[in-house]
Design brief:
Pfam families: CHAT. It comes from Streptomyces luteireticuli. This is CHAT domain-containing protein. InterPro entries: CHAT_dom (IPR024983). There is one protein chain. With about 725 residues, the chain is α/β, with parallel strands linked by helices. Helix content is about 35%, strand content about 20%. The protein has a six-stranded mixed sheet, with helices on both faces. The chain has a five-stranded mixed sheet with strand order 2-10-9-4-6, with no helix packed on it. Helix 7 runs antiparallel to helix 8 (about 145-175).
């Protein structure tokens, strides 16, 4: 909890889940002045330390109990799955709030009901994890440790909701509106939430954390309590909240749309200076490609603009800050470039807000001898608003023309790029050897004894530590530890198949995280050209199970169907390549789940369908036409090496980049061959978190990893999955 942060990194997802559920409730109430959810979320997260301080006593007790449980006889890793499961709140809570508003009841009357829903969610998932472990033959933690951790966690989440998040949001929404012209252009005053709640036992008659956990149905009285008493109890609770000092929030951010524009000569001869001009302008309903949103506070938002031009000579810094203020276009940034050698060269411009990638734009310049310089057209992409995901850190990895790599860590603080050359040259050789060892490890996991499983886990950890020290530059590792206390999710952007990022095990002397990077933090990937999608629609689910698929494929489909529930229509099971490509080219909507074998060789990936082979080139039409950009489906390719890629002329060719460039909202695939039973369990738990619990993509993936981690000794399948998309993406509530 260093760097001024009150919450440990693994608990920040809990804070975000409580915040998201509170936002769903307060924004369901009609208001004359209604800021957007993005604006409220940014402000609340900026004040997270003050909000967390309102439940500091309960949080410290939770941490102490959890730490004590970790020292008990049960291995610490098994308790982690109980203590770090994000909050799940039943949809009935929001429905109850909306119904109450319709009957004229103020939304704050339902504060207790929402807290009860949080507590119910805090209990249900540990029970779900224990049931899965019992079914798989794994002994559950000692009862006294499990119950004490769960009770402390319920008490903290209840106090966080009641005493911190809801009072803060209420204060923001109750502040008088201020005209745009009266908003000061200095830094806004910092909001101060109410005084922290004490850790003393609740007074007689008031609901305790334990009693909240026993509430049978969200929105109903306690057993033996009549409706009038129930309503009066929560009105009393709300009056005590409303009597506390109101925060003085900062002015609300602006949500006006913007556009990223780039100007560069399209033709020049070698040795010519060709300046690159970049600007953020207001969007005046001009057609364009929709990219990631960002919210602009009244005093402006500072974006980081980076330029990647490996074949041109940089005459200055290739990263600069650009101030975007409400109601006006930004100044023009000038990047100095000079042509050096002939050929067609690509220049990529990217925009970041904090550690969040907003969007990118590519342009090209043709360099030929004795050619006059000719200006190119203005290129632009649309940015509807400007917002960032607090706590997200992005590692941008770029490959230079000379074969070296550039690593740059991007967070709320900007670090300079670090040049890095791999001693082994092409990283594919060492990576393939690692994948082969992990394949053998997965195959042997089911036959290994207890001692063999411990040895395999030690070997897996040593592989991760060695990869961390050998594949990540020293400077970037130091920067990572400096940011570690503030990171809530980790995104890798760039050469996606350079190293198995999920296998990294951060360790430098006394600095050690909570295991592998992907079990410590939600780790997601991004490929160039992939748009950032925050909401996934799942109206239906379609399954691909060709002949010769694993024996568990049919059972996997049935499990996924049951987990998704009746709210997701069944699109059927496909076995023909023509049917799959036809559906994709027409704009597939919802979920596309593959349960099959994937063959991966030097020539790339291929799936044997009933009417012939299916490979990533079969997605070329969809990629170039953007067939999936309107529907943004989720693609889960549960097959061996489905996240692998090969170099194909000037780009990477694989299932992930092809689906994502076609417009998929998210993609999940495996980096090495996996065990069928573990793959089935991963998919089942992932969908349960994403759809049933409404977790984010990052939270659902890390929950699935942790739950599968201890099923079979030495099985590395839980680290094999690569997740592509926005870590904050959620399933549309209508699903």
């Amino acid at each position: 909890m260093g760097n001024g942060e009150l919450l440990r990194p693994e608990d920040r997802a809990e804070f975000e889940s409580v915040l998201d559920e509170a936002l769903r409730v307060v924004l369901a109430v009609p208001r004359r002045r209604r800021p957007t959810a993005a604006a409220l979320r940014v402000r609340a997260y900026a004040a997270r330390n003050e909000i967390a301080a309102c439940a500091d006593a309960q949080y410290r007790r939770y941490v102490d109990v959890r730490r004590a449980a970790g020292r008990g006889p049960e291995p610490r890793g098994r308790l982690r799955a109980l203590r770090e499961v994000p909050v799940a709140v039943a949809g009935a809570v929001v429905a109850g709030v909306v119904d109450g508003v319709a009957r004229g009841v103020h939304w704050s009357t339902w504060v207790g009901v929402l807290s009860a829903g949080v507590a119910v969610g805090a209990v249900s998932l540990p029970r779900f994890v224990r049931e899965r472990r019992t079914a798989s033959g794994t002994a559950e933690p000692a009862a006294e440790y499990a119950e004490s951790v769960a009770a402390a966690r319920r008490a903290w989440l209840d106090a966080l909701m009641r005493s911190g998040v809801l009072p803060y949001l209420e204060g923001v929404l109750d502040e008088p509106a201020r005209p745009e012209r009266d908003v000061p252009h200095s830094a806004p005053p910092r909001s101060r939430p109410p005084r922290p709640a004490s850790a003393s036992p609740p007074s007689p008659g008031s609901p305790s954390a334990d009693s909240l956990g026993g509430l049978p149905t969200a929105g109903t009285p306690y057993p033996g309590q009549d409706e009038a008493s129930f309503s009066a109890q929560y009105r009393t609770s709300v009056r005590s909240i409303r009597s506390r000092p109101r925060p003085f929030p900062s002015p609300a951010p602006s949500d006006e749309p913007h556009r990223l524009t780039v100007e560069l000569a399209e033709q020049a001869s070698p040795g010519r200076d060709v300046p690159l001009h970049v600007r953020i302008v207001r969007d005046l309903a001009t057609p364009g490609v929709t990219l990631r949103a960002f919210a602009v506070p009244p005093d402006g938002a500072r974006l980081l603009i980076t330029v990647h031009a490996p074949a041109l000579l940089a005459l200055g810094d290739l990263q600069q800050e650009l101030l975007v203020t409400p109601g006006r276009d930004s100044d023009v940034l000038r990047f100095g470039l000079r042509t050096t050698r002939t050929g067609l060269h690509t220049v990529t411009v990217r925009a970041f807000h904090g550690g969040t990638f907003l969007g990118e734009l590519r342009t090209q310049i043709s360099v030929e001898d004795d050619t006059p310089t000719r200006d190119g057209p203005t290129r632009e992409v649309r940015l509807p608003t400007v917002a960032f995901d607090p706590g997200e850190v992005t590692l941008q990895v770029l490959r230079g023309a000379d074969g070296s790599y550039s690593f740059q860590l991007l967070s709320e603080r900007c670090y300079a790029p670090e040049s890095f050359r791999l001693l082994a040259g092409d990283p594919r050789g060492p990576t393939e050897r690692i994948y082969e060892e992990l394949r053998r490890m997965a195959a042997a996991a089911g036959k290994a004894g207890p001692g063999d499983g411990d040895a395999a886990r030690r070997r897996l950890r040593n592989l991760g530590v060695q990869l961390w020290s050998a594949a990540v530059p020293d400077a970037v590792r130091r920067q990572f530890w400096a940011e570690a206390g503030r990171i809530s999710s980790f995104t890798v952007l760039g050469e996606h198949d350079l190293v198995p990022w999920e296998l990294l095990y951060p360790l430098d002397g006394a600095s050690e995280g909570d295991g592998f990077l992907a079990e410590w933090l939600p780790v997601v990937r991004r490929v160039f050209g992939q748009e950032r999608i925050r909401e996934l629609d799942l109206p239906r689910a379609t399954y691909v199970v060709p002949p010769g698929s694993p024996v568990d494929a049919a059972r996997e489909v049935e499990k996924v169907r049951r987990t998704l529930g009746r709210g997701v229509a069944d699109g059927g099971v496909l076995a023909e390549q023509s049917a799959v490509t036809g559906l994709i080219d027409q704009g597939l909507a919802g979920l596309l789940h593959f349960a099959c074998h994937n063959s991966f060789t030097d020539a790339g990936s291929s799936v044997k369908m009933s009417d012939g082979a299916f490979d990533p080139i079969d997605l070329a039409y969809a990629t170039q036409s953007g067939a999936l950009r309107r529907t943004r489906p989720l693609v889960f390719f549960n097959a061996c090496r489905s996240a692998g890629g090969i170099d194909w002329f000037s780009s990477s060719l694989g299932w992930a980049p092809q689906f994502l460039r076609a417009g998929a909202g998210a993609f999940i695939g495996s980096l090495w061959p996996v065990r069928s039973d573990s793959a089935l369990a991963f998919a089942d738990i992932f969908y349960f978190g994403l759809v049933s619990q409404r977790l984010t993509l990052g939270q659902a993936s890390i929950q699935a990893r942790r739950s599968v981690r201890d099923r079979t000794g030495g099985d590395p399948t839980w680290l094999a999955y690569a997740v592509y998309g926005s870590p904050a993406a959620r399933v549309n509530p209508r699903t």
